[in-house]
Design brief:
Structural class: alpha+beta
Mean pLDDT: 89
Radius of gyration: 17 Å
Bound molecules: fe (ii) ion
Low-confidence stretches: 1-13
Number of domains: 1
CATH class: Mainly Beta
Length: about 200
Amino acid sequence: MGTAAAHADVTALHDTPWISLPRPAPVPSEAAAWLDDLDPKHIPDGRFDAAPGDVALGVTALLAAAKTPPSGWQSWLAEDCASLADGFARQVGAERVSVRLDRIDDNACRRIHADVAVSRMVCTYRGPSTCVVPTSAAGAAAQNPDTYDGPFVMPERFEAAILPGTLSASPVLHRSPRIEGPRQVRLLLVVSPAGT
Ligand SMILES: [Fe+2]
C-alpha cells in the first residue's frame, strides 16, 4: 500500500513539466483571505518592465491605480511579487523583467499553447490556477490544441512555476482554467525576461 502510494507520487513528480521557485516562507492565510475578499474592481491589473529591485514599486503603482483599499497586505503583495521576480531573473540571468499582473474574469487563453519565450514564470494569487499539460499527454495535446480537454496538472495557489516556452528545447503546453461565475476573478502574476 505504502509502496504503491510512493510510486504514484514519483510518477506525478516526473509528469509535472515546470520548475518551481522556492518561497522563503509560506504565504500567510490572512494574505490569501485578503486577496479572496477584494472587490474584483480593486484587483490590480497592468504591466511594466523593471529591474528586479524596482518591481515592488511597480506593483504598488498598480495597486494605487486600481484604488485597492488600504491594507497592510498591499505591501506584502508588492514584496512577494518582487521576490518571485528576483528569483526568476536570477534563474534565467535577466537584468530586467517584464511583469504582468492580470485580473482575469473570462476564459483568457483557452487554446492549448506554449508561450513565445524562452521561459515565463506564472503564479496564481487568486482563483483557479493555470492548466498545464502533463509530459505524458503532450503529444495528444499538441495534435488537438483546440479540443484537448485534459488531463491537466495545475500548480498550487501561490506556487511560482517556470514554464519553458517555444524558444526552449522543451516547450510546456498549457491553457487558462475555466472561470465559473461572475465572482470568480483570477489574479495572475506573469514574469518574463524584458524584451521577449
Ligand atoms: Fe500562456
